[in-house]
Amino acid sequence: MATSRARLNEILVTLPSAGWLAVLFVVPALIVVAISFKPTDPLGGAGAGWTLETLRSLGNPNYPAILWRTLWLSITTTALCIMLATPVGYCLARLEKKWRQMVLLLVVVPFWTSFLIRIFAWKMLLHPEGFIKQMLVSLRIVAPETPLLYNQWAVLLVMVYTFLPFAILPVYAAAEKFDFRLIEAARDLGARRFQAFCRVFLPGIRRGLFTALLIVFIPALGSYVIPDIVGGPGAEMLGNKIAQRVFVDRNLPHACALSLLLILAVLLPLIAVLALQGAKDKARPIIEEGA
Amino acid sequence: MKRSFVPYCITAAILVFFYLPILVLVVNSFNASRFGGSWEGFSLVWYGRLLGHREIWHALTNSLIIAVSSSIVSVLLGTTAALALHRYATRLQKAHYMLIYTPLVMPEILMGISMLLFFIAAGMQLGLATIFLAHVTFCISFVAMVVLGRLQDFDFSIIEAAQDLGANWWQSTWKVLVPLLMPGLVAGGLLAFTLSIDDFVITFFVAGPGSTTLPIRIYSMIKHGSPPLINALSTILLVVTFAAVYISQHVLEDKK
Q1: Count of the separate structural domains present in chain B
Q2: Do B202 and B81 fall within a single domain?
Q3: Cα distance from B164 to chain A (closest Cα, Å)?
Q4: ipTM of the complex as predicted
Q5: What pLDDT shows up at residue A291?
Q6: Is any Cβ of chain A less than 8 angstroms from the Cβ of B35?
């Protein structure tokens, strides 16, 4: 009797959140999967019956190019973010407490401001009459006719800008727990400074690096606003195609098929990293609270 | 031992990288020039125009309504979720944890399109109500994670002590558990509020005519509007954010 009472209590506390997410998260996801097996009706909605035609249309020459662009932009963004976040995390962990708090706050604060406004700020800087463009032209680094905006490089730059703090925080969290005496020991044993950094420090903060990888790569894959604002038609990503299929040339089954592709692109690295980590320690989630 | 300067230089450079765009934006909001390539004198004209922009105030009201209501509901749901996850170690909770965790790693655009299709299938009118439902959905997980972090250091023997001293379930919850968990609830609520008020992608998918929120208004201004107006609006939002950070830092320090 006592156990069934406890069971009832458990169900009662679980039900509100689980029920809400089942209806508004799981069911919608299943709808996306279902509709990608539907034909398109004349109004762009889901037609009757089932078909593989919609999924097959992903082979259409337009899509692989966009998929590749999405992958290379996301991979490059992730690599750059981790490369930049590692020295910052190292530096933060070695600073005195007072300075550390301040620098950490400086890293986080701009990112409490609107995401759109930060993208807009870059659009203005790179604009033909903007600050950076004018400066680079007057220093004769770029020619006046070189466009800085509306290409893949602009998208890459703004993606790194947007996701870098998300990489810094987990790397710092891991570096803070790192025992820096290990580096001194390595140096005493004859390792050069850079060698000690690569072979002692980096493996020591491995966990933070993996978290940073996921925390940057997954949202990067789903980027939509950044290529929409600073990228031109030649810098479209998967997210833009999905939005275009929903809002512009309404074709919901195609949008769903593309979403399915994006879900796969997200799940594969996630499972890979989780499996890699899971082999080491099963109990802890890879993205920790407050990371 | 002498340390390398390289990481410190990189850190300094990155801070410049972080703040340069924001700084230029703020300076340009006082620039009379339209594109900000050159300085054409100090001016408050853009702020004046902003004040007369009724659509922005309307959008701000919508954003605040949604942020307040969805953070309250997501704190309630996220807290019960965290309590269940912390208290029980059953198979049900493993599934529950997966359910809470997955939205955290789901790209926003996927949540946006899936909820849009759900609302269409359910025959719901797109508007403030659908935005509210969508915001609660993505905020629950964040609140649950924050509260779960707090529960990890929570001493449940206090609750048992209260019950031994004669408190019933209601009393031990509202007079002991909730006050002690308050910092976690506030942190979760603030996180939900910030996520909700800044969300663009999901909102863009599930918003209908007449339910424009501030980020959607800003987006359409970026696409079609006048840049200096956005500079001015951004500067005001930045001041509000920095003030909030400054105040919360000082309140925290006073408590220590």
Answers
A1: 2
A2: yes
A3: 18
A4: 0.87
A5: 38
A6: yes
Query: Tens digits of per-residue pLDDT, A235-272?
Result: 899 999 999 999 988 889 999 999 999 999 888 888 88
Contacts of A287 in chain B (CB under 8 A): 104-105
Which of A272-276, B14-18, B132-136 has the weakest average pLDDT?
A272-276
Contact present, B149 and B184 (Cβ < 8 Å)? yes
Q: Quick check: B118 and A118 CB within 8 A?
A: no
Tokens read off for B163: 């019950």
Q: Structure tokens of B179?
A: 């006050």
Domain that holds residue B28: 6-46
Asked whether the beta carbons of A211 and A287 are under 8 A apart, the reply is yes
Cβ pair A117:B218 closer than 8 A = yes
Residue A288, pLDDT score: 47
Q: Is residue A96 part of a domain?
A: yes
3-state secondary structure of A40: strand
CATH of residue A75's domain is 1.10.3720.10
CATH code at B83? 1.10.3720.10
Question: Would an 8 Å CB–CB cutoff place B4 in contact with chain A?
Answer: yes
Alpha carbon A51 to chain centroid distance? 32
The nearest CA of chain B is from the CA of A241 a distance in Å of 11
**Gap between the Cα atoms of B113 and A115, Å rounded:** 20
Q: Give the pLDDT of residue B2.
A: 59
Q: Is the residue at A13 inside a domain? A: no
Number of domains in chain A: 1
Which residue is listed with tokens 């925390």? A215
pLDDT at residue B36 in the model:
60
Amino acid at A156: L
In Å, how far is B176's CA from the nearest CA of chain A?
A: 18
Looking at the domain assignment, is residue B67 inside a domain? yes
- Whether residue A93 lies inside any domain: the answer is yes
Instruction: Measure CB to CB from residue B110 to each of A14, A35, A259 and give the nearest one.
Output: A259
A289 pLDDT higher than 50:
no
Q: What is the mean pLDDT of chain B?
A: 88
**Between A and B, how many CB-CB pairs are < 8 A?**
237
Question: Does B199 map to a domain?
Answer: yes
pLDDT in tens, A145-204: 778 888 899 999 999 999 999 999 999 999 988 988 898 899 889 888 888 888 889 988
For residue A192, tell me if it sits in a domain: yes
Please list, in sequence order, all residues whose beta carbon lies within 8 angstroms of the beta carbon of residue B10, skipping any fewer than 6 positions away.
Answer: A84, A87, A88, A91
